[in-house]
Amino acid sequence: MFSPNNKFRNRWSFFELITLGFSVMWTRLFYPRAKLICYPVYMRGKRSLSYERGLNIGYGCRFDLLNPDKTTLKIGKSCEMGDCCHIVAIDSVEIGDNFLAASKVFISDCSHGDYGSGDESSKPDDPPISRKLISRPIVIGNNVWVGENVVILAGVHIGDGCVIGANSVVNSDISDNSIAVGSPARVVKKYDTTNKSWIKV
After folding, report:
1. Do the strands 80-81 and 56-57 form a parallel or antiparallel pair, or are they unpaired?
2. Who contacts 5 (Cβ-Cβ below 8 Å, separation ≥6)?
């Protein structure tokens, strides 16, 4: 049982200490403004990454930045991402300051194919891998906390101060100072600045 008087002690294995030491050196060499980039990290298209000081990225994260001609992923100050997060940014993903993501979060500004109406839409007999990538920008505000296994889809704007519950799929905009959960994610609470408390909606 947890008690605030208990002291948690992280017990690192010898291998973990070696890996951590390598990650610290690797971060200083290749990501000097970052706090810590844990190795391994899979960075495809580093030229398209822009980040501010204090970035902390967990083990096994993957970044697919597929447009060498522009900055497609912008990350603000003091942002932290857990292990095995995956971001795809072929056009524009902007993440504000103090972003916190748990592990296995997926953020993508694109999808394989156009599933609207008209002649340009993708056909079911087209192999998915050969369908045209369709992108829409993503904007995530400041002080946003995203739980484990969250998926954030193309075209979404998440406002400042939001909390996205674990296992949620965000496919539409979330207004400032909201808590959203579910698949698809829906706002369940809003912060009332007058009463200084979270109110169910």
Report:
1. parallel
2. none
Nearest Cα to Cα of residue 145 among 133, 159, 125, 131: 159
- 128: alpha, beta or left? (left if phi > 0; alpha if psi -120 to 50): alpha
| Helix boundaries (H) for the chain | 14-30
Q: Write the DSSP string, 139-196.
A: EE-TT-EE-TT-EE-TT-EE-TT-EE-TT-EE-S-B-SSEEEETTTTEEEEEEETTTT
pLDDT tens digits, 65-123: 988 889 999 999 999 999 999 999 999 999 999 999 999 999 999 998 988 888 888 99
User: Residue 140: CA atoms inside 13 Å, Cβ hemisphere, count?
Assistant: 33
Q: Cα(84)–Cα(40) distance, rounded to whole angstroms?
A: 10
Q: What is the rounded CA–CA span in Å between residue 121 and residue 149? A: 29
Rama region for 167: left / alpha / beta (φ>0; ψ in -120 to 50; rest): left
Residues in the chain: 201
Name residue 146's amino acid: V
Show which residues are catalytic.
112
Is the pLDDT score of 11 beyond 80? no
Structural domains of the chain ordered from first start = 34-200 (2.160.10.10)
79, 110 contact by CB (below 8 A): no
